């Protein structure tokens, strides 16, 4: 696997589903419109090419699975679960 795929697989195995700023805004709206208060926000650590640790905005993998099961996940979350959900331990 390439560097990005390794990062995404590792995120799933550590319980993270990385999200973009667009997805963050989508989730904020979803929480309001559907009265949802169970989405767990996290930060997934990763090591940059310079050797320093950085953090990617994420939600907990269980939140991502639940959104998918409720048909509330956007494309970004649904694709992550489809392609990398198998790396997660539930």
Shape, please? globular
Structural class: alpha+beta
Query: Spatial order of the strands in the main sheet?
Result: 1-3-2
The termini sit apart by: 23 Å
The low-pLDDT segments are: none
Largest sheet: 3 strands, antiparallel
Order of helices and strands: HEHEEHH
Give the number of DSSP strands.
Answer: 3
Strand content: 15-25%
Number of helices: 4
Average pLDDT value? Answer: 95
Return Rg in Å: 13 Å
What oligomeric state do the depicted chains represent? single chain
Helix content, binned percent: 40-55%
Count of spatially separate domains:
1
Briefly, what is this?
With 90 residues, the protein is an alpha+beta fold.
Structural write-up:
The chain has a 3-stranded antiparallel beta sheet with strand order 1-3-2. It has 90 residues and is α+β, with helices and mostly antiparallel strands. It has helices spanning 3-13, 21-33, 61-69, 75-84; strands spanning 16-18, 41-47, 53-60. It is globular and about 40 Å long. It has one domain. The longest helix has 13 residues, at 21-33.
Helices and strands, with pairings:
Elements: H1 3-13, E1 16-18, H2 21-33, E2 41-47, E3 53-60, H3 61-69, H4 75-84
Antiparallel strand pairs: 1-3, 2-3
Q: Which short descriptors sum up this protein?
A:
90 residues; alpha+beta; 4 helices; three-stranded antiparallel sheet; 48% helix
């Amino acid at each position: 696997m390439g560097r990005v795929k390794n990062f995404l697989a590792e995120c799933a195995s550590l319980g993270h589903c990385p999200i973009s700023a667009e997805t963050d805004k989508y989730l904020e709206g979803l929480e309001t419109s559907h009265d949802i208060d169970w989405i767990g926000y996290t930060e997934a650590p990763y090591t940059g090419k310079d050797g320093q640790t950085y953090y990617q905005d994420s939600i907990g993998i269980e939140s991502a699975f639940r959104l998918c099961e409720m048909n509330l996940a956007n494309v970004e979350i649904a694709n992550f679960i489809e392609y990398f959900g198998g790396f997660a331990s539930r």
